[in-house]
């Protein structure tokens, strides 16, 4: 286990798995009982999916920091057939759960398809390409994820990273909105902040106003590369 | 339910008429099978072509469970002039995914019609509904201990035989040309009648799944890659599982070897020494299958430089070209054919043969060996991580199985792709006498410049290949009209004459393969 991942797992309780048991590491994340004044929706359990790599830690930090009183579980994803068939059974059988995630393109393509086949309500699909000097975000979302989109956009502006964001909002005639920002000389920590904000926003699904996410923990690796994000309800 | 306002409407249909149609669908199917809310439709909009999602946004999606429901659906569609785009398992990645041909079409999703109706272990046939996946069939064969083998495309576990065959897809076993192995279809026509092809119309017949041709014109092919009907059942042949299966790979170190590879393999393939739809994959395709990401080797923009590709090959034990083939049969048959294959490669003087024992647990050998044996897996999705960014279109020109042709096509494709900063990620799937030259045009959809470049690149690929006398066998929904033009005006007029006769209201998948009564000006 590398240092990044150790940092990520610190404070998490490895818990039992629901249903037939998802493959990979499963962790129930302890929630802060102090965060109790919540949106009604947030009592639903959340399953957060990420690839098993250090750059996903910032996203998990964000998910974990969200105000959420339901159970929160984290699972690694992979291209392995066992994992995907187990996830398929889970999305078909489980009810009343949010599944959010930030994963690579291959896993993301498959997970979104499983969601469609299971008749899940998909609130958010994001495509992210992030390099050290610029990020591209392409979002397709419904009203339920308006708060998340607004918070991601605001945080991208506040933290000053160069980015292009293109959002198609389904539900109002598929409206498009764009953000382009050119800034240089941004600190590493700010470059990685988008993933914390995204995790925080997706785990706060249904809220129209989402408080600012915490700053990315020092020592975490900024997420660079290509990613798919999603949020759906089964 | 209060009056709903719809964001997306079918071409030429107003809110009021659409609402009436939706109400009729709800009455027929129940609310839970009529999807109109954005969050119910977003997953159908995840396309991989570099065009806006809005261009392929459905107005609604329906799920049906019986043939009678489908008959009633087409009746409503005729009444309100609602176009429907049918999908079975809906995993048409790189060809349009589950999204409709154009904005506003209703998706008819047949995923819930997922019964395996019959498997005959003696005659080695199957009859399935549209929602059956290869994984489901595979599990069925395993559970019933049936010594039969499936042929499946690479997204095997989640794709399905009916949808794949309707789009004339391919697999990697000796039964890899799937439409060739199809036998008997049941089709709901636009007027609601149910047609059974081949022997299926004969009362009391039991040879529907064993004799393809029936009597008079054979019409199964008319329903594939077309919009003349909704297929609700399909029969196909299964291969008996052989006592001995011997997969192998042959690694070639130079890109220039492609012509020699084809020349040495063609006679073996035509003579059925190598009986399966063997594959010749280039280095970058292999890299994707071996979970390599470009950024692990190269952080620059544009085309991956040759020296980087060479480094990946060296690190991962990949060739510039990699043949995957297999032998099937009794121990004696396989031994004889193995001798012929190894002698041929020896005589060629290049190419390193790798057996299953030598490859061990390594990818991509492992997943290729599974595909050639009809065992589902999803390893080839690693291609999507090679470059990343969610953009993929298959450019799949047909080529003669002739060395000079394949090398000409490869060079032409590479030149055009590289001009737009994109990589050549290609393989040749060797058919009986043809090759499907399948190129994955991978791009980053979230990068506006690459998005535009990939679209222009695809256009140029189609144009340039056409100029040289080549055309693709299948294409994504954004380019269907363009590709139809390559096949000439007479074919198009015939196709539209048939469409007018069978579906005068143009309700079934207008636009599929360029067939659309509203836009055709022939
Ligand atoms: C990594 C990767 C590798 C791939 N490898 C292969 C490969 O080896 N071989 C290959 O063929 N493809 C391949 N594909 C492309 C594609 O994913 C498969 O062809 C897949 O089988 C198609 O999806 P499906 O089976 O779910 O069919 P569907 O998506 O359900 O159907 C395909 C099309 O057929 C028509 N259709 C479907 N059902 C009906 C019906 N009931 N009535 C009328 N028309 C209908 C529709 O036009 C539909 O769009 C690959 C894709 C990826 C991502």
Automatic annotation (TrEMBL), chain A:
Q: Which domain of life is it from?
A: Bacteria
Recorded protein name is Uncharacterized protein
UniProtKB/TrEMBL annotation, chain B:
Among PANTHER family, the record links this protein to: ARYL-ALCOHOL OXIDASE VANILLYL-ALCOHOL OXIDASE (AFU_ORTHOLOGUE AFUA_3G09500)-RELATED, D-LACTATE DEHYDROGENASE
Domain of life of the organism encoding this protein: Bacteria
GO BP terms: namely:
lactate catabolic process
Q: Which cofactor does it need?
A: FAD
**Per the UniProt entry, what species is this protein from, by scientific name?**
Nitrosomonas halophila
| Keyword entries, A-Z | FAD, Flavoprotein, Oxidoreductase
For molecular function, the Gene Ontology terms on record are: D-lactate dehydrogenase (cytochrome) activity; D-lactate dehydrogenase (NAD+) activity; FAD binding
FAD-binding PCMH-type domain boundaries: 54-271
Task: Quote the Pfam families the UniProt record gives.
Answer: FAD-oxidase_C (PF02913), FAD_binding_4 (PF01565)
The identity of this protein, by name, is 4-cresol dehydrogenase (Hydroxylating)
